[in-house]
Amino acid sequence: MSPATPAAMRLAVVGKGGAGKSVISATLARLLARRGHRVLALDSDPLPGLSLSLGAGVPDDAPLNAAAERDEDGRWRLVKGIGPARAVQRFATDAPDGVRLLQIGKTGRQGLAANRASHNAFYQVIHRLDQVRSLDDWVILGDLPAGPRQTAFDWAPYARRFLLVVEPTWQSMLTARRIIRISRDMRDDVAFSLVVNKATAASDAERVEDFLGVGLLAIVPADDDVRDAERAGVSILDRAPDGPAVHAIETLATALDEHA
Question: The whole model's pTM is what?
Answer without folding.
Answer: 0.94
